[in-house]
Design goal:
The complex is a heterodimer of chains A (889) and B (111). Helices cover 54% and strands 15% of the residues of chain A. Chain A is of the alpha+beta class. Chain A folds into four domains: 2-72, no CATH class; 131-349, no CATH class; 354-532 and 758-887, no CATH class; 550-740, no CATH class. In chain A, α13 (354-385) packs parallel to α16 (451-478), α13 packs parallel to α24 and α18 packs antiparallel against α27 (852-878). Chain A is elongated. The relative contact order of chain B is 0.15. The chains are: A alpha+beta (889), B alpha+beta (111).
Chain lengths: 889, 111
């Protein structure tokens, strides 16, 4: 009963606000009339009686408001009214509204997009149950120049059985496989995994089983596969009875034993299917423990075991194993500073992306900060221009709370509008970022606008709203009404403290924009330096591609050699082709193998050890195709592939390492078997192998195909023919020799290099975009402060001009102030730039964290932009017509 | 929730309004204010306007009700009267009030 009464009351109140208002009005007016009459009966004059009655009654407006309060609908009606009032006033000042919303939208948009990336890559947990317990482990031989390798097969078997910290230990290795019965066949990414791999990740299968058996890890038994959901859809047309069916991989039928759930994500490449890692029992003997470190190890720690304690256990496990080893090997391992490390899996996957992402997010936050400072200034100017209106309303009895509420609502309307548009902009930016290559980042496929990102932008909008409205509310509380009214009336110059506040805003903005600009400059210069770095070969007019020769059809090296010879001949026969070369150590392709090399006749200094170099074959016109220069001796030739001769070519870095002052030609080096060395016949230029920014090359040794007859082959063709047409010809040529061999990753060599720059280029582009916005904001901010100062002092300036002040004096005065502000901003900006530089050190290439050239340029740009922004309002002041300025108001 | 001084004053005003309406009903706002002034010998000089928010508050809680009527000088006005809920509330509050003032008296006498 009662509840209905309340509800009906509230509805009535909500809709009949106007009526209730007039009822209250009527009641109060009646009351005051009666009071007046009482006083008149006491013998007071009508005016005096009315005054006393009003005094007795108290503030009518406030009472009315209190009445509305007790209606309980106050909040809603108030909100609606405030929104209505604010909308009206915002519509009146379109320029202000547009500036605020645009600024906020841009800056919140940038932050939303950046956060979406950070959220996907750094914040969100890996998509596996209790993924915080997942770790990876790798071996390191810094003494050999190999800071980070995978683990060996033997280590896997050792650790799987011995380590108590782990619930399970598994390994994997990416590979390529040819899939299909006959042409067209596909060359697809797959992965070799140990039996318990999916157990370790704890991902479900849709059907079949998720583990391979121990028997299936023996050669000959390993013809089974677990496929991904998407591969199941494409290859098997979502066949529900796929389990037990056969799939031809690398020419051999494999039995499908499991299908993974949809949405299984795999941060280590885009494997389509998984096969067991097969090895003979001899392969698992301790002799191989420290070689072939090319498996990625994934482990799941036991509940409650920390990475640190797992590390401790692994260390002592390694110590123990070393004791079984012969003294000589222990010596080598010691010199190589061998160690195994356990890392949290998520942290390890994102370790390279983390610093640059954090730097960019910091940049976006700086941008938001500049925007806030800018807007705070705009808001205060607006509040100031309305101070008189506010004061009049307050003197008429409007509560300060009411005024504060209006300010708050107006501000929040703006920030929410800005935040909303910013969110939309952020979505666009996410697509833009994708175009810049964020999807190539680890876990970059997960970047999306999820609920959390929306929340972040919402919270962002609220925080900005609070920050922007607080100073105005505080200042409206502290206002002395009469002084405001008088100041407005006299056209005074405004209070000192407000002027000081505005100056602080300008300095802050200039400083922040300066830091951002110099940071962007550093990233930009770093990118430029990277791009200018020669890879050591000529990338123009080179098309590259990979092929794999299946072991079923090409089991022995002479089969593969025959194929290669034929391919070489046929490719060279294509009209317009200049050079054709083959290798398995192509730069910017896959990571080449590395072997430990021993120089014949060279005694190691105590503590020194043999080091590893990239090692591969090269045949055909490999060096000419890539444009790698010959320094000394000769390239490898056809004859080197025949008979018993053992020769090789090393690059300059290898030659310099061992024979700094002498020729390397004729020297002998050995790998694996020391009794069977090869003679160096040529020294070629050093190339960058994986990354333009690598500083200390590992060095490369290249041998004829007969000494390293691998199944995976990369080909390079130099030609002036249009790359698209050339690629088609290459594909046709390969197919005409063997239709079952597909071409993979065919493309222009330069594109490979461009792709390798994603971590440098995108941040540079983004940070320059941020810096440009920051610069514009700083210009707007400075402009508005000076323009406001001019408008406030029109009368004063007018009088001074009337009294004979020269325009140049006025101009000088404003420029003088601005120059001081600019200098102060730059001084703080330099400090900020220093911090930014130190923070960015790890991602810079060839640029010192405190680069004088960049800083000078930044000073120049900053000064130019700020002074331009100052010039327009100052110039207006200098040309003021004194008569007009005094006639105003 | 701790009651502030203003809350206490408000509560007192509510009680006075209800008490006035028990004495004489129905009555318009001005009439109520006159009666309260007489009782308190003009000691409780609250702003008279604050009567109205109190009236609305009480009405919303269902302690008083009103109807439209015509006053002595022929003006349309709201005439308030006590509801049964209001009666009960007043009794209860008065009892509380008496208890408390007795307690205060006692404490003050002892000291």
């Amino acid at each position: 009963m009662n509840i209905w009464r309340v509800i009906s009351y509230r509805i009535r109140a909500l809709f009949g606000e106007a009526r209730l208002d007039s009822e209250t009005d009527e009641e109060m007016r009646f009351h005051i009339e009666m009071l007046t009459r009482e006083y008149r009966e006491d013998g007071l004059s009508p005016a005096e009686a009315k005054r006393k009655a009003l005094l007795d009654f108290g503030g009518i407006e406030r009472m009315k408001e209190e009445c509305r309060d007790s209606w309980g609908t106050r909040f809603v009606t108030d909100l609606i009214r405030c929104v209505r009032v604010s909308t009206r006033s915002l519509r009146k000042s379109r320029g202000f509204t547009a500036t605020v919303i645009t600024t906020l939208a841009l800056c919140i948009g940038a932050n939303v997009a950046m956060y979406a990336v950070i959220d996907a890559i750094l914040v969100r947990a890996l998509p596996y149950p209790q993924s915080e317990r997942l770790v990876t482990s790798f071996n390191s031989f810094p003494g050999l120049g190999l800071d980070r390798l995978g683990v060996s097969l033997v280590s896997y078997y050792d650790r799987r059985d011995a380590l108590k910290s782990f619930e399970s230990v598994s390994i994997l290795r990416d590979s390529m496989a040819v899939v299909g019965e006959s042409s067209p066949v596909q060359r697809l990414l797959d992965s070799r995994v140990s039996p318990e791999f999916f157990d370790t990740l704890n991902v479900p299968v849709m059907m079949g089983r998720r583990n391979f058996t121990e028997e299936e890890t023996l050669p000959g038994n390993a013809l089974v596969t677990i496929i991904t959901h998407s591969f199941w859809q494409e290859q098997f047309n979502s066949d529900p009875d796929v389990i037990g069916k056969s799939l031809r991989i690398d020419g051999r039928p494999h039995v499908v034993v499991g299908v993974l759930e949809r949405g299984f994500e795999f941060p280590w490449g885009d494997a389509n299917f998984f096969r067991p890692i097969a090895s003979s029992l001899e392969d698992r003997q301790p002799e191989g423990r420290y070689t072939g470190n090319d498996f990625t190890m994934i482990g799941r720690l036991r509940q409650g075991v920390s990475v640190e304690s797992a590390q401790k256990e692994l260390d002592s496990h390694n110590e123990l194993l070393m004791k079984e080893m012969p003294e000589s090997l222990v010596e080598i391992l010691k010199n190589a500073r061998y160690g195994s490390y356990v890392r949290n899996l998520h942290e390890d996957i994102v370790r390279q992306a983390r610093p640059i992402l954090i730097i960019l997010q910091a940049g976006a936050l700086f941008l938001l900060l500049i925007a806030i400072v800018n807007l705070m200034n705009l808001f205060l100017i607006r509040a100031k221009s309305r101070a008189k209106e506010t004061a009049v309303r307050q003197s008429h009895g409007a509560g300060r709370l009411q005024i504060a509420k209006e300010v708050g609502i107006e501000t929040f309307m703006l920030t929410f509008a800005g935040g909303g548009i910013g969110l939309a902009l952020g979505v666009l930016c996410i697509h833009f970022l994708e175009a810049l290559g964020t999807d190539q980042l680890p876990l970059g496929n997960n970047i999306s606008l999820d609920g959390r990102v929306v929340w972040v932008s919402f919270i962002c909008a609220i925080c900005v709203g609070v920050i922007l409205s607080l100073p105005i509310i505080v200042s409206s509380y502290s206002h002395n009404l009469s002084s405001v009214l008088k100041a407005g009336a006299r056209g005074g110059t405004g209070s000192k403290s407000q002027q000081k506040a505005r100056h602080v805003f300008v300095v802050t903005q200039v400083a922040l924009a300066f830091a951002l600009l110099s940071g962007a400059g550093m990233l930009g210069l770093s990118l430029k330096k990277t791009l200018e770095t020669s890879p050591g070969f000529e990338t123009e007019e080179v098309v590259v591609a990979n092929i794999g020769l299946p072991s079923v059809k090409y089991p022995r090296s002479h089969h593969r050699q025959a194929f290669l010879d034929r391919l070489n001949e046929d490719l060279r026969a294509i009209p317009g082709v200049e050079h054709v070369g083959f290798t398995n150590a192509m730069p910017f392709n896959w990571r080449p193998d590395d072997f430990t090399i021993r120089v014949v006749g060279r005694t190691l200094a105590p503590g020194e050890t043999d080091v590893s170099h990239y090692f591969g074959f090269a045949s055909g016109d490999y060096w000419r195709a890539l444009g790698i220069p010959l320094i000394e001796g000769r390239f490898l030739e056809e004859r080197d592939n025949k008979g018993d001769v053992r020769v090789c070519v090393v690059d300059e870095s290898v030659a310099r390492r061992y024979w700094p002052d002498q020729s390397a030609i004729g020297r002998q080096i050995a790998w694996g078997d020391e009794t069977n060395p090869a003679t160096i016949v040529g020294v070629v230029g050093t190339v960058k192998t994986l990354d333009l920014t690598e500083l200390t090359p590992l060095g490369t040794v290249l041998v004829p195909y007969k000494l390293r007859p691998t199944a995976g082959i990369a080909l390079a063709v130099r030609s002036k023919i249009d790359p698209e047409i050339l690629m088609k010809s290459i594909r046709d040529t390969v197919r005409s020799i063997d239709p079952e061999i597909p071409l993979d990753r065919a493309g222009i060599l330069q594109e490979r290099i461009d792709d390798s720059l994603v971590m440098q280029r995108s941040p540079a582009v983004l940070s320059i975009a941020f810096a440009s916005i920051a610069l514009i904001l700083a210009a707007i901010g400075t402009y508005s402060v000076i323009a406001y100062a001019v408008s406030q002092r029109r009368r004063e300036i007018g009088i001074r001009i009337a009294l004979g002040a020269l325009p140049s004096t006025i101009l000088k005065q404003f420029f003088g102030t601005s120059t001081w502000l600019l200098l102060a901003g730059i001084a703080f900006g330099l400090v900020g730039a220093w911090f930014a530089g130190v923070g960015m050190k790890s991602v810079l290439f060839g640029v010192a964290p405190f680069h004088p050239g960049i800083l000078l340029t930044t000073v120049g740009i900053m000064a130019f932009v700020v002074l331009i922004a100052v010039f327009f309002p100052s110039n207006r002041a200098a040309r003021l017509d004194p008569l007009e300025s005094m006639r105003e108001e | 929730m701790a009651k502030t001084k203003a809350d206490l004053l408000k509560g007192t005003l509510d009680l006075l309004i209800l008490k006035a309406l028990r004495r004489k009903s129905p009555m318009h706002g001005y009439g109520i204010s006159v009666m309260i002034r007489q009782w308190s010998d003009d000691v409780l000089t609250v702003e008279q306007g604050s009567l109205y928010p109190a009236l609305y508050r009480l009405e919303e809680r269902g302690y008083i009700d009103f109807e439209w009527g015509v006053s002595e000088n022929n003006r349309k006005g709201k005439f308030y009267r006590l509801t049964s809920r209001g009666e009960a509330f007043l009794d209860n509050e008065l009892a509380n009030w008496t208890n408390m003032s007795r307690a205060i008296n006692m404490v003050l006498q002892i000291s």
